Amino acid sequence: MHKQKRLLVVLLLLSMIALLVAACGGGGNKDGGSGNSSSATGSSNTGSSSSGSSNSGSGTSDAGSGSAGTESRYGDTGGLQLPLVDKPTEITWMLVGDEPVDGKLIATEIEKRTGIKVNFQVYSSATYAEKLRVTVASGKLPDIFHGLTQAELRKLGQQGAVVAINDYLDMLPNFRKLYIEENPWVIASYGDEQGKIYTWPIYDMQRAVNHGFMYRKDIFDKHGIRPWTNTEEFYEALKKLKELYPDSYPYASKTKETIFKDWAYGWGIGSASYPAYYDENDGTWKFAPTTQQHKDMLDLMKKMYNEGLLDPEFLTDTQDSWSAQMTTDKAFVTWDWIGRMELFYNQVKDQNPDYDLRYANPIGPTGNIRTLPRIDDFSIAVANNKNKEVALKLLDYLTSPSGGSLVTMGVEGETFHFDENGKPVYPELEGQAIDIKVLEQKYGLWLEGMYLRPDHRSVYYNFTEREQEAQDMMISQGKFEPLDPKLNFTDDENSRIAELQVSLEKAAAEFNANYILDKSAGDKEWEAWLQNAKKLGVDEFIEIFNTAQQRYNAMVAQ
């Protein structure tokens, strides 16, 4: 034993000497692109850049994975030792993709690192759902799959068809750290009544800002109009534009009745569960279209409509008609996805090189925008069969910084390297506009259902100047609406919610339209709507949410 210890010490000393010699030679000190994610936010409730840290697969991490070779080659595995199996093993994985994956980088590298050969069953987004239904009905589940509803997956789990993941925490250090230790609410949101969770969540996928108000900066600058900082300035800017361009309708929209949800965050009534939302002030759920805040928002829209500031076809405009307005002098302000800024510029730059659509401040009394969740769910599940432990370990590896980097970036030094700004460069794709679709086609990266912890150094987070401005603007202001709890409903509750919501949303949409378009509509019509909502079961609808909230609170408190 003493001889072995002495031998180990000698070997370690020799290794240290070798490293010092290499460093003096200056040859192997690669900058692994330790630049932090550009999408980091100041709020713990939004998608952050933790997965974009310098140890995200750069090959320089000291993660204590249990294997020095693993650390030096593959980065931070979160405590897993590679390979994951002691003999060659095959599993099946059903997911969404446009072309076969076998033989591409992602398949070969997973097998190289983990010892697991994955037989990918890839189907297009158009056919995947139906194929999944057929597969589930057959009872012959692939080892890994995704795409069922929570209720469906929970039923399969309770029947023993898929694995309760938290029964295997001892072998899943990344899952345990992210979803048990750091975010214990995950079980309350995604588990069943017994606290069993059958879905593998996705961590840190979102950018900080994806949608919001936008304005024609070139037109504002031309006429000396300052970008608004509050709702009154927003209204005054639209009035000025109407004076300058009488034939225009300064605000245009393509989202039809969804405009009410888009704007709702600025009035503190927005939610991923809209029209239900969680009121942080009193800790209860409410129905947004029956609140005073909603009426106040409608009153602003009504005023804009009456004064010709809002496109009169805002509830029926198509993508094409809206685009035509926003790329000419017919409309100057809208709400959309931030990528639209570049798309519109590229569309019209030859005819109008000065065209400049920019991200704008939100409006409303809170002035908030939607907070994108740090944890999402695709209902990724593992079949309860002989391969279950292997499949679980693979998912856990892909949830580590090392695995996340592989799935969303590739292999550093082989498929890409970092430039001086910490951005990935793909020599084989030189001259191409590289996005995640290109990476999927070439290497099998960014497959839906496989990216469990995206590396924020990936091209997906490489913002244009306009997009970066949007991120920086909102992060600096911290104008993010608090995330509502993710509730877990019973099958009966889900059924009743669906039944009530159809009639309530239809009635709300009709009222919203009539209230704005009818100049005579006012407080009398508002009161009539409140009574109608009661008749349609709004109280029961909200009571279901509050009952589920009570269960959620009890589970989180445990």
Quick description:
This protein has 558 residues and is mainly alpha-helical.
Protein traits:
558 residues; D-Maltodextrin-Binding Protein, domain 2; three-stranded antiparallel β-sheet; disordered N terminus
Description of the structure:
The chain is globular and about 75 Å long. The protein contains 20 helices and twelve strands. Strand 6 and strand 7 form a beta hairpin. It has 558 residues and is mainly alpha-helical. The strands form five sheets. Strands 3-10-4 form a three-stranded antiparallel β-sheet. Strands 8-5-9 form a three-stranded antiparallel β-sheet. A two-stranded parallel ribbon has the order 1-2. The longest helix has 27 residues. It has two domains: 200 residues, D-Maltodextrin-Binding Protein, domain 2 (3-Layer(aba) Sandwich); 245 residues, D-Maltodextrin-Binding Protein, domain 2 (3-Layer(aba) Sandwich), CATH 3.40.190. It is 43% helix and 10% strand.
Query: How many helix segments?
Result: 20
Protein structure class: mainly alpha
The main sheet orders its strands as 3-10-4
Average pLDDT figure: 89
Coarse morphology: globular
Q: Percentage of helical residues?
A: 40-55%
The CATH fourth-level homologous superfamily of the largest domain: Periplasmic binding protein-like II
* Strand percentage: 5-15%
The poorly predicted ranges are 1-67
What is the total tally of β strands? Answer: 12
The CATH architecture name of the largest domain reads 3-Layer(aba) Sandwich
Count of the separate structural domains: 2
